[in-house]
Amino acid sequence: MSPVPLKESRSLRWMVAILGLVLVLSVTQELARPETTDLISAGTAGSTLRRAVPILLAGLGGIWAERAGVVNIGLEGMMILGTWFGAWGALEFGPWWGIAIGIAGGAAGGLLHAVATVGFGVDHIISGVAINILAPGITRFLSREIFATQTGGGITQSPRVESVGHFDVPFVSGGQIFGWATPDIFGWIDDRGWFLVSDLFAIASGITSNISWATLLAIALVPGTVYVLWRTPFGLRVRSCGEHPVAADSLGVNVYRMKYAAVVISGGMAGFGGAFIAIEQTGIYREAQTQGRGFIGLATVIFGNWQPLGAFLGSILFGFADALQLRDRTAVHALLLLTGVAVGLIALRALKRSQPVGAGVLILVSALMLWWYSATDSVMGELPPVTPHIATLLVLVFASSRLRMPAADGMRYRKGQE
Amino acid sequence: MTARRIVMALAAPVSAFAFSVLISSAVLIAVGTNPIDAWAEMLSFGMRLETLIETSNRATPLYLAGIAVAVGFRMNLFNIGVEGQYTIAALLAASAGAAVSLPAALHILLIIAVAMIVGSLFSGFAGYLKVTRGVHEVISTIMLNAIAWAMVGYLMRTWLADPDDTTLNLKTREIAESGRFPNLNGLLEAFTRDIKGGRELGGFILVAVVVGIIFHLYLTRTRSGYDLRITGLNPFAAEASGVDPKATVVRAMLLSGAVAGLIGLPEILGDDFKYDLSFTKGLGFAGIAVALIGRNHPAGIAVGALLFGWLDSAAPILDVRGDAPREIVSILQGVVVLSAVVAYEVVSRVRQAQEARDTAIATAAQTDTGSDQPEGEVGA
């Protein structure tokens, strides 16, 4: 189940897929009425990336734990710990320390989960739920003790927090080198308004300008996780604990230690995600600001078939939904057109494969979407935030046979017992 | 033998609670307050009649939430979606109750029926996805929570909010007098003194008690409840002995959601008479905590619900007197849950080892006692 190394054919296919997606989005943007300009734009791309990062980190955290065979419903709680400790660390010692302390806070939550599930053999779901209940209690108490006494802070929020800083990539997005402003080539092409080309460069410009250093670090964790889990002996051992712990044990792997390590790393990733929300996204700690992103991260694990790259794509998709609804409702409306047509195409394929019932249902869905698109001018604001949840349900309902989770995921393991 | 059983059964929750008090005390010392003063303050305030009434009012929805969760837990089904189920059930039940006028008893029954049906539709959908498409209920109910909240927001904004209301706090129309649940102040005052501060002992606690009793009878006295329990203990054995696992899953989810629908009703029927933006959230997750502490047993859940209700009711005095931050209670609650689940696990392992030893001794002595078969306890 290891990801195939990026061979030429594969990277080519990726490029074609991305180009095709951008083409589809550009066409949709051109055709959509009422007009929208934010379906693809530098702003949307940048916002998507920022919104995707915490989800991505929670997802990577989920992969670490589940690859070692421990289901981590507690990601949400660990993320909450990350937001508080991240903000506190940033206030006390500066933003980078905040990230580090947020990671430590999440990792502490992971350690608790590991002690309960691996050490004591408590059911994984139950322990995770308990951590989700415990974490807000801890942060509420700590806020009361610490933030409430500071100016601008209170029982439910911290004073403003400074971010770790942003940069523009030189030569492509106008970044500076030793004080010399390089040209903003991507932005220039974006402004020309050439069909497709400008859209491509708009995305490139969005994800190369005003980038947080923390974002860069988070994205580096995707190949980092792939490398460690699939290319190192440690990763092999961790994964073997998630597939067949008894076999791993018989080969001399210390299963308990591997599981502990993986779950602590998992908590650390979630904590990073929480710290990112507090320090980079909002610049403040607020109670309940994770808004269930830990759970969405869990959804990307399934969505991405327990693969880091899959979780990354899932988080981009969910980040896109998140970004669009904040920026431009008409863009969300335009997506109805896109989904309607897409479902229609899938229906045609089903018809060709002589699956009349499925095709009938899909055609009905497609017609409904298109009717909805033409009959309205905007989509209700409640829909975009739940698209990740609906998408996850749909994936589980229709594609669960293609998903493969680690074989011993969620199972209790006691050394010496089959 | 039974004495040892009782000691074993109480060992876990008591030691978990003691551990949590210890941890919380350590935290209080760390922030420079005297824990003994704080606990004493809470105890003396917590024994006042008004605080106990508040405890009962807070424990009622918690108990219902605990039962809703426990219905699933008893057969290893994790209905994490109680949170969303009770919210949308409360909204629709409040709207339905405000839309009709009926004789008192019928009116209340209608509201209760709407709430239970809405709750069970949501949870039943998760059950249906599990048995037809193999979607794990933990994931589907988490996703359905978010979908339920979105639906609540949309329905409130567009259709169900009172159009004559001009304030920013969206609310449904008020339920007429006939649809309100009576309080038990008269009954209580006959035994005690007058209740001060305008507090009311919510009558819905009677419903909660009845639900608890029905839950117990269902599990212990009916075929269907028996199926549910043995499926939780050993799904393969259950199936081999003729239990339809799919029907049992769907039934358990439907029941769980139906009880979940009741959670919001003490507030809707006895206190606010409408659904608005300040409707209490988080009871579903708290219900999971309560069910875990009570080990999915109706009596245990009652203890858990009363404990959480009492802690929440007694904590405000800490702020009034300034002895300690009241938020220490949320730490205490969180630690209780985690340490309780660990303690139950440890105790059950100790018990298993002991039973294995006993059996070994009995077999070695060649005495055929026959009744040494360990009776399985279901639970977390």
Strand fraction of chain B equals: under 5%
Structurally, the number of domains of chain B stands at 1
Spell the H/E element sequence of chain B: HHHHHHHHHHHHHHHH
Supply the CATH architecture of the largest domain in chain A.
Answer: Orthogonal Bundle
Helix content of chain A: 55-70%
- Summed up, the helix count of chain A is 16
CATH class call of the largest domain in chain A? Mainly Alpha
Categorize the overall geometry of chain A.
globular
CATH topology call of the largest domain in chain A:
ABC transporter involved in vitamin B12 uptake, BtuC
Which CATH architecture of chain B would you pick? Orthogonal Bundle
In quaternary terms, these chains amount to heterodimer
Unreliable spans of chain A are none
Total count of strands of chain A: 4
Mean pLDDT of chain A, rounded to whole units?
A: 87
Could you characterize what this model shows?
- The complex is a heterodimer of chains A (418) and B (380).
- With 418 residues, chain A is an all-alpha fold.
- Chain A has 3 domains: 277 residues, ABC transporter involved in vitamin B12 uptake, BtuC (Orthogonal Bundle), CATH 1.10.3470; 33 residues, no CATH class; 54 residues.
- Chain A is built from 16 helices and 4 strands.
- In chain A, the strands form 2 sheets. In chain A, strands 1-4 form a two-stranded antiparallel ribbon.
- Chain A is globular.
- Chain A starts with 7 loop residues before the first helix and ends in a 19-residue tail after the last helix.
- The mean pLDDT of chain A is 87.
- Chain B has a single domain, classed as ABC transporter involved in vitamin B12 uptake, BtuC.
- The radius of gyration of chain B is 23 Å and the shape is globular.
- Chain B is built from 16 helices and no strands.
- In chain B, 73% of the residues lie in helices and 0% in strands.
- Chain B is mostly helical.
